[in-house]
Amino acid sequence: MGVSGKQSRKRGRAAPDRASAVPAGPAGAAGSARALGSAGANGAVGHRRSVAPDELAELAARLADAPAAVCTAIDASAERVAGRYGAAAETWPEASPIEAGPAACVLRSNRSVVVDDTSEDLRWGCCPVSVSEGIRALLGVPLRDDDERIVGAVYVVDAAPRHWEEAQVEAVDRLAILAGNARPIRHDPAEPYPDVPHLFLSALLETLDVGVAACDADGRLLLYNRALRELRDLPASWSPTDGLEASLVTNPLLGLDGQPLPLTGVPLVRALNGEVVEQTDVIMTAPGRRLRIGSANAKPIYSGDGRCLGAVTAFHDITDRRRAERFADCELQVARALAEAHSVAHAAPTVLKAVARSLQWPHAELWLLDATSEHLEPVAQWSAPALDLRVELPSVTGPEGIVGSVWASGQPLWVPDLLTSPYVGSGEAAARTRECARQGLRTVLAVPLLDEGVVQGVLACFADTIEGGEELLTTLLGTIAHQIGQYMARRRADELALELARTKDQFLALVSHEMRTPLTAISTYTELILTDPEQECSAQHRLLLERVDRNTRSLRAIVNDLLDLAALESGRFTVSCDHVDLVAVVHDSVGAAAGAARAAGVEVLTDVPDRAGLWADVVRLRQVLDNLLSNAVKYSPHGGEVRIRVRTEDDTVRLAVSDTGIGIPEAERPRLFHRFYRASTARNHGIPGTGLGLTIVRAIVEAHGGTIAIADVPGPGTTFEVRLPASERPAATPD
């Protein structure tokens, strides 16, 4: 099995090994016994009793921000537990053969083994026996003796799959190296515990990316590593001898409510008083610098006889994590504000407030492109109460200033410090920038609002400290800008769709009206000629006139459908209900379709009761029946059959129109009621139609409070089933 250093893989990663490493084996068994075999007897890992196995396991877990860890000893035949920390480690077996456990992976790779998910990792799968069903992620680091032989391992574990960061792997690996190089602290247990930290611990702390501090039993700071000084923005020259209280004067720790923590509320002091502090968030301040959020863990340190020797605390910088969490909530607030607003300008104050508070920055502005002037106009701004920006926001007409630069480039702009930026020069935009700088605003981030690559606006946010994290903040604010840009695109599309619909309705109404008048005249005159006994015409002329009359009626039906469709989409579709007998309507419709059915060679059968009363618009109800019946006849072959059934069930009247025709493919049924849609079977058979009839039928049925669907019945053809309320009178639709 090949393992490459620090290269992430889909199923696992391996950390870098050390040169000249020699795996444990028969030759290394003696070293293993010397180094780790006595761990159970004296509570130490190796003959150098620098740190107990349980302590080593706990420190490794805390460095990797994991819930549990196990420290083991490896000899020629087996791997045995020397120390544990955390509940997840309790199920780890006391001893297991080398070939049946994770030691095989460590020895084979001769380096740290990183497994994000034990259920998917191929290397883990090569072990015949799983260590524990409750362990889903593992970071294994070898422990070596003076000859660089692997004599044990530290396994940091988690009950859930996780991604091990490279910094965590390196931290645990360094711990293992330093544990192997450490020398014992030799002192008489009767003497007071030394107040000088061990060289091993001091060296380890300075290499970590986790902020760590420690104090003795009297509260004097003994250790304060580089990472914590940087996290709290303390100078490199600051030393623990300056005291904890001295650091809190200039750089106080705040609670999440923004109030300074009293000395007794500081995690290290709480631990010294006997409290175990776990994952407590605190805000770290520094003059002129951005706020940092640290997750603090702290615990007291006791000797073997129960005396308190001091306390230790560790801080993980979770600023970016918390900021990302706030922005996830901010996205929801922005989405809600946009959903409830009729325009971006209307939602802008709420959006800016949510964004500024998520960033914890005191000022935000939103500019939108004015279609008339083609300038960027300020539509809203939000400021913290302490700000008093007295210069009004001017229109942006060109690429000058921060907003103008983003408008011209279409790219985000990060200004680390307004005071030293070129944007405080001259001009109207510079006056506003100088006013922002005078009010203490320093870092600026401005991002474009894009719609298909075109800048439609700019979102600008201002911090009152010199901020870092340009890449993360640009990504987070860009997400909000993308939300707003998508909303603007949807609004524009909706407006265009509404305008198109209005234009289409006007066109349909105009065309239908202009067609209706001449068609009515043609139909009337044709009917007069055909019915006037005084008009003499040949049989051929009469046949031609009948065709004119028939096609004119078809055109008038299409015009009426178009007018109904226009009324339906404009909200002017109406029904006027009265108590009617559906059976009588069925008989009238069947009678009207009898001629067409005979001509097509289709038999129309009815299965109806004596009466089926309901509240309905008799004209519209007849329109439903005529459409369904004419379709059934039209799509049935010669010799086919059309059947109409009416049933009354409780307060519902059911109308079913079935045919033995060409049918409708199941995949096309959901679109059948869409306007102008025609099934492929109808198109393939060359049967004429407009695709409007079923759209209007569904509108009429729904206006009556009913439903229409295609019934799933065996055999050829199609069955449309209409359900209408029988006893409840639907409210009349407005004219």
TrEMBL record:
This is histidine kinase. It catalyses: ATP + protein L-histidine = ADP + protein N-phospho-L-histidine. Residues 510-728 form the Histidine kinase domain. Its EC number is 2.7.13.3. PANTHER family: HISTIDINE KINASE 1, TWO-COMPONENT HISTIDINE KINASE. The lineage of its organism: Bacteria, Bacillati, Actinomycetota, Actinomycetes, Cryptosporangiales. InterPro entries: GAF, GAF-like_dom_sf, HATPase_C_sf, HATPase_dom, His_kinase_dom, HisK_dim/P_dom, HisK_dim/P_sf, PAS. Residues 1-35 are annotated as: Disordered. SUPFAM superfamilies: ATPase domain of HSP90 chaperone/DNA topoisomerase II/histidine kinase (SSF55874), GAF domain-like (SSF55781), Homodimeric domain of signal transducing histidine kinase (SSF47384), PYP-like sensor domain (PAS domain) (SSF55785). Keywords: Kinase, Phosphoprotein, Transferase, Two-component regulatory system.
